[in-house]
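Q: Sequence in, structure out?
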Amino acid sequence: MNITLEKAYEEDADILLYIQKQAFRPLYDLYLDEESPYCDTVDDIKWKINYKNGKYYKIFADGILCGGLFTFHIKDGLYKMGQLYITPKEQCKGIGSKAILIAEQLEPDAKEWELDFPEDQIKNEMCYRKIGYVPLGKREVVNERLKLVFYHKKL
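A: Exactly. Output:
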């Protein structure tokens, strides 16, 4: 499967929000997290697309739009993988991990990347570990249902 990333523009916000809501709905239903990407609006997506320290990408698998990825710069050499989402029918096919590896290469000054995800999402953990991310040893309790774990990767 050929995975490519393309820069997102404001006119992409509606379709990206639609895919993001599909991808995050099961997690929202499970965790009832009001800060979930499921709760984002078109304006939230547009803000990320225009964020001066970030990049928002459309993810394509074999030429078909199937997700999005938001990355941003934290400080010298340190970047964060923000929202990564793949339409449900294309999940668990390696698209997300390939998209991350591509995004890492698009920041040549990056020395380290961070990301976070729900502690009980074992498929996410396996994906991130497979491409070199390891636990930071940091956790954040969002609510009684949701604990985030933080991972990093040194390049």
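The chain has a mean pLDDT of 97.
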